Amino acid sequence: MTSKLFSLALAGSAVLGLSLNAAAGLQTPSSLLVYPCYDNTRGTDTLITVTNTNLDQVTGTVDVEFVYINGDTCLETNRTRRLTPGDTLTVVAQADNPNSDRGYVYVFAKKAGVGAISYNYLIGTSFTFSGADDKDFELAPICFKGVPAEGAATDLDSDGRRDLNGAEYSQAPDQLAFARFLGQRYSPQESSDMIHGAKSQLVLINLAGARFQATVDFLVWNDNEEVFSAQKNLDCWDRINLADINGVFTNEFLRNNTNQNPNEVYTGNNPHFSGGHVPETGWFWMDGNIANSSADVVQDPAILAALIESVEGDGGAQLPWQIGEQSNGDLLNLSIFADNN
Asked: What are the two backbone dihedrals, phi and then psi, of residue 253, each rounded to the nearest 5 degrees?
């Protein structure tokens, strides 16, 4: 691989003070669910499920609004449904929103005459399947709890946005970390080097606003504690190959251009990795650096992410670990000015 494919610098000094102090735990029912991606492209379908865990026959009925965000234009399509106590609803995104190929969707609890409400009983999941290549994956939504009392309005500033600020809903993550990625197959020509290659995609959501372009910082570690830096520009939403973000994610770079640990991945006598064709591994951290519109600037913009993985035709997906919180994320700011509420 030639140097023009990527630009990266050894960033050992940059990680001083990086602390993985996020609390671990299971997801809990919430008022706002963000599904990082839906895919309506040819041969692919995404199922979106939302379930009401409130079983109270008197107070347990709630309306939920589906907001589909077109990943290319950031335009939205809205649908409202009613969930009775213990009710579950699954929709096929292509049928529910046939005018958009890809993007993300969020679902929030609402009440007629009030609007969005605090109702921490919603759970859900998404499942994307492809008849063309069998690279199916299931991905949980990112959950935000309503902060006001149950049933109370969450739109405290009446701006029509879901503010992830700790007052309307729980705060957005500050930094994100993925515990593992597999060395990427940069091109079909690399298959001789990497029979067991990966082709993963990173989904990114910009919470600064639809008319802001955000710069996202990356620190990428190999399997021997060496760290490199990278950046990616993000508009509204993106789903991009890891190898297209930066060459540091590729198997060739990790194997041939870093002081990698030959004992990682440990495979024992597993025949699946025979012949020495074992993909390299690493992990990476992300943080929003700056976001700009034609009229305003947001420092340290909030982002959301998910990693969709494909290895030898098999698919999977994972959400990142959250490190810290920040109060400047919104769904969805359509203005050229930042939402400072």
From this structure: -65, -45
Q: How many CA atoms lie within 13 A of 266 on its CB side?
A: 0
Instruction: Tell me which fold the domain 32-164 belongs to.
Output: Hypothetical Protein Tm1070; Chain: A (2.60.290)
User: How do the residues of the chain divide into helix, strand and coil, expressed in percent and rounded to 5?
Assistant: 10, 45, 45
pLDDT of residue 314: 76
- Position 255 confidence tier, pLDDT thresholds 50, 70, 90: confident
Q: Are 206 and 235 in contact (CB under 8 A)?
A: yes
Task: Identify the pLDDT of residue 268.
Answer: 65
Dihedral of alpha carbons 211, 204, 331, 316, sign = positive
Distance CA 23, CA 20 (A): 9
User: Among candidates 94, 45, 90, 97, which has minimal Cα distance to 75?
Assistant: 97
Where does CATH 2.60.290.11 sit in the chain?
Answer: 32-164
Q: Is 149 helix (H, G, I), strand (E, B) or coil?
A: coil
Determine the Cα–Cα distance for residues 309 and 244; give it in Å rounded to an integer: 14
Residue 99 — φ and ψ, nearest 5°? -95, 10
Angle at 50 between CA 157 and CA 168, to 5 degrees: 15
